[in-house]
Design goal:
Blueprint: H1 36-47, H2 67-78, H3 80-85, H4 102-110, H5 130-140, H6 161-169, H7 189-210, H8 213-218, H9 222-227, E1 230-231, E2 236-237, E3 240-241, H10 247-255, E4 260-263, H11 271-284, E5 291-294, H12 313-319, H13 322-338, E6 343-344, H14 369-385, E7 389-395, H15 416-421, H16 425-432, E8 437-440, E9 452-454, E10 461-463, H17 470-480, E11 486-488, H18 495-501, H19 503-513, E12 518-519, H20 524-536, H21 542-558, H22 568-578, H23 582-595, E13 597-600, E14 615-620, H24 623-636, E15 643-648, H25 654-662, E16 666-671, H26 683-695, E17 699-704, H27 710-713, E18 720-722, H28 728-738
Parallel strand pairs: 1-12, 4-5, 5-6, 6-7, 7-8, 8-11, 14-15, 14-16, 16-17, 17-18
Antiparallel strand pairs: 2-3, 9-10, 13-18
């Protein structure tokens, strides 16, 4: 049997007459109460736009399906494009051009889906038999005899014996309890919907098993295809945080045929809850699994509950150790995979060359492009070893900006030579090392694309950000850099996109520019419909969608997402052996300890040391941070018999902090600058404390917990350490150095105004 079934669009015709009525693809029916056995199939085929009702919510499931209706359903499913463009003439004497299904019958005849009778008639209004149903469907689809045994007593000598055997041996049709098939019995609309659904799902599963993604795409509707290109967040539903699979998530997954979801802190209670949530999300997804992603950069951006969240990327940069970076990627991937997450939106490949960067800072490895390249590719390698996809960010580079793209539109005005030498270098290295997902930046790069559009926010002329630029994504990333993987946008909730372009237009433009996946659309339903409409009206070519979806399916397959055989019980039982285990914690500690960096020293080598019996005052901007440092100091002091006190400094609190400092033998002055413009930070309070401590000739250390740029903005610091994060592993390592239990061997990974001598 010669079969044709190649169409990218699937079937999405909105309204086709069936007898007396019309219906849309999203139609739901009110008369299925006595056909519950077929309800899933009827709704499935209706959503595909293949079957329709008679209007007013009526499907009439028990009504016999006619030969004309049957071929109409199949033509809608297989040849919707031909329905749009028209068809040749029908040669059947009883199918005049005025027949409501004239085009469908002509298309069916053209492709050999259904044949007429010897007298030149088609009998369009004759009820279909079970035998004809088998014959029609085996003509339409590439089915071969299956492995199931068949013993039907009334089909052996029937004219339709072969198609009945093919269908029944694949479990697509069945007989009755008395061993008969009853081939001449008529078929209801409900039964025909069930038979078609079985065949389509069987063919989809066959395509998945064969990794034939072109074939699978041919069975996906436009809705399903563009749905694969959307990854929204699910932080809340009906005003409540989302920690289980609620009705809102179910509706979104099914209504928008979503390809993935991103989880945030609001979705996380503990490891068992997250694992249960991700497992149940995949159960809800149907035959194509979800990409489930998360931001697990380590350090300040962390999500793993009770897990190994690591000291952060700049701590790795200070260590300069590629083996540690690979180990960090591997353990992060192992913990994410145990939680049911397959995509990590990390590592950050931005080069933090601008101390005033308000959003990247210590999320970056370094201000040195070569170091970022080495550590980035090592981290990617580690994630890949554990079976987790690295989605590196933010292309072409967010490191040299003074605007947070969550809040506004950054513009990077460097020339192309500078971009090649700095910003693009880590991305080139990642591409050469086979990175499979790259996240775009909502940043304008006039040296690559100088197009401007009128802002919807204020009518001003605004440049096109990389996310919406075909010159950046297709011209630069695809064609010049040779990238073949998936391009995912940064979040569409960010103001750099949301304020200026309007989400629907931005979604359409991003996909046209080369984006394969839209991350976090503000209105997922509207974004989905925008893409469906763009394909239907030809604004976005079907080939563009096909290419994106094929890459998505291939990557899901490569990382084993289609294998969902592992039970929830098994997943939960293995959590404790993976999440935060001793081996992972040892890597975490090693990174933190190798990262500690001397910022300032009286002797050029060591910060001031804490001595036996010292009264140590810990001064920090937050009481909780001061208490954490105090607790760690007490635990690590050994037999030093230290006395401790804490104080909080900041606007209006400096005088009180100075009083506490005057009672000290040693001062730990903890400073945390992050998520703000460094030059606008409150350095005056810190400088006041340093000046007073210097005057009193006390031992002290300025402990940098955030972006390590203190030496640019402060003067006369006699003793300083950078630990690149206020997390417990970072601060514990710093305390060890102050107690003389550890040598500070880190090398400052960013450029400052002061040249430091390496002590590593």
């Amino acid at each position: 049997m010669n079969v044709k079934m190649v169409t990218i669009l699937g079937a999405v015709l909105g309204s086709m007459l069936i007898s007396a009525g019309s219906a849309a693809a999203s139609e739901r029916f009110s008369d299925l109460q006595h056909s519950k056995w077929a309800e899933d199939s009827i709704n499935y085929m209706a959503k595909r736009g293949t079957v329709a009702g008679y209007g007013n919510g009526k499907f009439m499931p028990e009504k016999q399906v006619t030969r004309a209706q049957a071929v109409t359903f199949m033509v809608r499913e297989l040849y919707p494009q031909e329905l749009k463009s028209g068809a040749g003439a029908s040669n059947y004497s009883d199918v005049p051009a005025t027949h409501p299904f004239y085009r469908e019958i002509a298309i069916a005849a053209k492709h050999g889906l259904a044949s007429g009778f010897p007298d030149g008639t088609f009998h369009p209004d004759t009820a279909m038999s079970r035998a004809e149903t088998a014959a029609f469907l085996t003509r339409a689809y590439s089915l071969v005899t299956g492995n199931q045994s068949v013993n039907l007593k009334d089909t052996k000598d029937h004219w339709a014996a072969e198609p009945i055997l093919i269908m029944s041996s694949n479990g697509l049709i069945g007989g009755y309890t008395d061993g008969s098939y009853r081939p001449n019995q008529s078929v209801t609309r409900a039964e025909f919907s069930v038979f078609m659904t079985r065949v389509i799902r069987f063919e989809r599963e066959s395509a998945i098993q064969a990794h034939d993604w072109d074939k699978l795409i041919s069975y996906m509707t436009v809705s399903e295809q563009v749905g694969q290109m959307l990854i929204p967040d699910i932080r809340q539903w009906n005003g409540q945080v989302t920690t289980t699979v609620n009705e809102g998530i179910k509706s979104s997954i099914h209504d928008q045929d979503l390809g993935g979801l991103i989880l945030f802190d609001k979705n996380i209670v503990d490891a068992r809850q997250v694992t249960t949530l991700t497992h149940n999300l995949q159960l809800e997804a149907g035959d194509i699994p979800l990409f489930l992603g998360i931001d697990q950069e380590g350090g300040v951006v962390k999500r793993i509950p009770g897990g190994t969240n690591l000291p952060g990327q700049m701590a790795l940069g200070a260590s300069g150790d590629t083996a540690l970076a690979e180990a960090a990627g591997k353990l992060t991937g192992e913990e994410l995979k145990a939680l049911g997450l397959q995509v990590n939106f990390a590592p950050v490949l931005d080069i933090n060359s601008n101390p005033d960067n308000p959003i990247i800072g210590m999320r970056s490895f370094s201000s040195d492009a070569d170091l970022v390249s080495r550590l980035g590719t090592a981290t990617i390698k580690g994630l890949r070893q554990s079976g987790v996809i690295a989605a590196v960010k933010h292309f072409p580079g967010h490191g040299d900006t003074t605007v947070d793209s969550h809040l506004g539109m950054p513009v990077l005005n460097h020339n192309r030579e500078r971009l090649d030498a700095v910003e693009l270098k880590p991305f080139r290295a990642a591409i050469e090392n086979g990175v499979e997902m790259i996240m775009t930046a909502h940043i304008a790069f006039p040296a690559i694309d100088d197009e401007h559009v009128t802002s919807l926010k204020d009518g001003s002329s605004v440049p096109i950000p990389a996310t919406l630029s075909k010159k950046v994504l297709t011209g630069l990333l695809r064609e010049e850099l040779g990238y073949k993987g998936i391009i995912i946008s940064d979040a569409f909730t960010m103001n750099a996109i949301a304020e200026h372009f309007g989400e629907n237009k931005a979604v359409e433009r991003a996909v046209s520019a080369g984006v394969d996946i839209i991350l976090m659309p503000q209105d997922p339903a509207a974004a989905h419909q925008t893409l469906v409409n763009a394909v239907k009206n030809g604004t976005i070519p079907t080939e563009t969608i096909h290419n994106s979806v094929k890459k998505i399916l291939e990557l899901k397959s490569e990382y084993g997402l289609f294998d969902r055989s592992e039970s929830l019980t098994h997943k939960l039982n293995t959590l404790n052996s993976v999440i935060g285990n001793k081996e992972h914690r040892a890597v975490e500690q090693q990174i933190a300890e190798e990262a500690v960096t001397v910022l300032a020293s009286r002797d050029g080598a060591l910060p001031d040391q804490i001595h036996q019996g010292d009264r140590v005052v810990i001064v920090a901007a937050e009481q909780e941070q001061a208490k954490q440092l105090e607790k760690q100091l007490i635990q690590a002091q050994g037999n030093l018999s230290l006395k401790t006190n804490i104080s909080v400094f900041g606007p209006g609190k400096t005088t009180e902090a100075l009083k506490a400092v005057n009672q000290a033998d040693y001062v730990i002055l903890a400073n945390y600058q992050f998520r703000n413009v460094a030059s606008q930070f409150g350095w005056s309070e810190v400088q006041t404390l340093i000046n007073e401590i210097n005057k009193s000739n006390k031992r002290y250390t300025l402990l940098s917990l955030g972006n390590p740029y203190e030496m640019i903005f402060l003067q006369n610091v006699q003793s300083g350490l950078a630990v690149y994060g206020k997390q417990e592993p970072n601060t514990a390592a710093g305390i060890k150095v102050l107690l003389g239990q550890l040598k500070a061997g880190g090398v400052l990974p960013v450029t400052t105004a002061q040249s430091l001598v390496s002590v590593k």
